[in-house]
Amino acid sequence: MSLGTISYEIIGDSYEKLYKYIMEQNIPCKNVTEIKGVLYLETSVWCKSVLEEEFNKLSFEYKITKKKGLFFILKKIISRKGLVLGGITALIISFIASNLMLNLEILCEDEEIRKDITAVLHENGIATGSFMPSINCAVIERELKQKVNGISWAGITCDGSTLIIDVVENVDKPESRKIRLPCNLVAKYDAVVDKIEVYDGQLVTTVGSGVSKGDILVSGTVITEKISYENGKEIKEVSQKYARSLGKIYGTFTLKQTFSQPFEAVEQVIDDKAVNKSYLKIFDADIPLFISKEEGTYSETSSTNMFSIFGFELPVGITHTELYKISSKEVTYTEEQAFELAYEQAERYENNFLEEYEIKDVSYSENITENGVEVTVEYTLYGDICQEVEFFINK
Amino acid sequence: MKRKSPNIKFTGKVKEFMYLNSYINIIDNKKVVIENCKQILECNEVMARVATGSFQIEIWGKGLTLSNYCTDSVEVTGVVESVALTSKKQRKRDV
Questions:
Q1: What is the interface pTM, i.e. ipTM, of the complex?
Q2: How far is A128 from chain B (nearest CA, A)?
């Protein structure tokens, strides 16, 4: 009854049938009394329709004299739309403020690291508007440590609607005392020596000679002979000293590289159509102005327009984000296209790895296999062919 | 002198055993609670009349009101002056 009670004033000939009905149907009634032929009773709001039906059946005249209880208060409140709207808004705001991520704070000044962290978070579906209790901090921390270069530790804290990511950047290894060991200059390729520039060490090859990979070209062990004459006798003094070989040995050599391109490959395609999402920006918080969450991988660009009054910028604005869907597509290439891609690979290889050499000659040979094509490139290169290899001195 | 114990019949025993008797609680002169009530017959300011299995109970007083919150029981509230019980048999005989 506490939810709502209704008081009735009923006028009829005899109330015995009504009493009987009340007892049979177990209708809870309160304060039942007859005064001067008029029956007064109170009943629960839930029994209203049943009881009124019975009144009509018994041809009783009745009127409701009083309504009280929570049910009627709520009914009154519901009829006041502003109040309801305010209440719902307050509820939504408190829900958003307590459960949704509105702000991401990365405690790191390095812009590259910040970008990488944001990318890892996006990969894991963490963006503004994410449901905070569903964020598994331990897993994300582990991924950040594994995937983001330049950090040695990552910690995640959920503070209200803010996700704080604290990172410790890699501390450079303290420079240890370098012992400059003596070294040889050793051939990196099988080549023909064309030009020699030696600044230190003992040259053990000549221009025009062929060398194999691993041959010592300039030795760090320098043997000197000192010849002197005493009483017409030749005295030979052989001494050995060690040096850190310095120099450049230029040579011509050939390098063979095979580039293959399968006919069927998976390609990532960025959709032209953008999905627009807007956020209400209040200070640092971004409140999503949408309900649906996009699934999949997206490339995003965003811009923020802050509101201003008489030139004074307010801390409130709208952030527009454009999401372009990245989808994987299986592509089948023709022979011609596959060769084109293989040649592109070769070009990239030349730009990345053969920049320090002069390409004297290039010969291509093409081959078609069952699954794709292969392009074998034979480069004739000219450049420095030696590298430093340290050695230990037996004391 | 030997006191005669009330003659309780078999049906009376069964009723007692099955909790079919009506239980009447009178709280001061403010409230009368009747359990195992079958029917409300009348209820006005001065008199409330209800029927139980074996009796008709008349409650006399002032400003009486009746409430039934749960199955087969009623509560009469007001200034209770008297409670009268008339067995159904007696009533039939009177009629």
A1: 0.78
A2: 54
